Amino acid sequence: MNSFDQLHRAVYDGDDRTVVELAEGLLTEGMDPVHLLNQGLIASLDKVGKDFADGRLFLPEVMLSAHAIQEGMHLLEPLLAEAGVEPRGSVVIGTVKSDQHDIGKNIVVMMLRGAGFRVKDLGIDVDPEVFVAEAGEGEYQVVAMSALLTTSLPWLEKTMQALERQGIRDRVKVLVGGAVLDADKALAAGADGYAPDAARAVEACKELLGLPTDSPCE
Ligand code: B1M
Q1: What are the residue ranges spanned by the domains of the chain?
Q2: Mean pLDDT across the stretch 119-133?
Q3: Which atom of ligand 1 is nearest to the CA of 46?
Q4: Does residue 53 sit in helix, strand or coil?
């Protein structure tokens, strides 16, 4: 078994201690943290997700796997954020109301911070009024929302309607993402931008704010 196989196994088993040990070892050997994040940690969820969908894994087991991944991500956070550049823009982000998935959103937060954005993370299950209050008071330029469940999609629209009602919608850009979305659904919901992954979320934020981008975003 190579190191990634062991890592994937440890995530599958929800063995957070082994995940951290293996990740530390790979970083010490000089592995690029972005490679470790994408091919090591995130990729390990493929089998978890498939077996969950097929009924071979149950919710408590998936929660343990998710916890193990997050422990590994804590190691990477300072490495991904160490660019130390001046703030380029400000983003308030959260997972929409009714949705508790935050692994992807946390990666977006790490990448945005690493790219020099000021980011306020509101967490999971965020009520539209909380987005409104933060966007109104915090002078954020981008309101970013993550949604993983089909049933949480209506909360994207409800949040945008709440921003509209409070007169905030026109002065912020809204970026959305999450596995249940695509560009068409995002635009239909009224968002200004959509990104399929964390790297492209950074590019999308730059594009929305008129900053130079590294690559075209979707
Ligand atoms: Co849930 N879950 N889950 N789950 N879960 C999914 C999403 C599901 C696809 C599994 C399945 O059935 N195959 C399914 C949703 C089906 C649907 O609605 N279409 C599902 C379900 C049904 C549920 C429950 C309803 C199960 C139940 O209770 N019966 C329940 C709901 C709870 C709730 O939210 N109210 C539930 C619960 C959970 C756990 C709590 C156990 C756990 C979450 C733990 C956590 O997040 N802290 C969990 C997990 C782990 C998953 C899977 C296995 C993995 C999700 C994940 O983290 N992926 C998932 C199946 C799967 O995706 N294979 C599944 C890795 C992550 C890096 O990817 O989040 O897509 P992702 O983020 C990416 C991009 O999407 C993008 O960038 C990220 C990184 O590149 N992105 C953005 C994300 N946010 C973005 C925002 C942006 C831009 C890009 O801009 C703002």
Answers
A1: 3-82, 90-208
A2: 97
A3: 63
A4: helix
Q: Residues 132-154: pLDDT tens digits?
A: 999 988 789 999 999 999 999 99
Say yes or no: CB of residue 110 within 6 Å of ligand 1: no
CATH match for 90-208 among 3.40.50.720, 3.40.50.280, 2.60.120.200, 3.20.20.150: 3.40.50.280
Percent of the chain past pLDDT 90, that is, above it, reads 63
Does 218 score more than 60 pLDDT? Answer: no
- Using a 6 Å cutoff on CB, does residue 124 contact ligand 1? no
C-alpha of residue 152 to centroid of ligand 1, in Å: 11
Indicate the SS3 state at residue 143: strand
For the 3-82 domain, the top CATH level (class) is mainly alpha
User: Given its phi and psi angles, is residue 167 left (phi above 0), alpha (psi -120 to 50 degrees) or beta?
Assistant: left
Q: Report whether 198 contacts 217 (CB < 8 A).
A: no
Ligand 1 within 6 A of CB of 101: yes
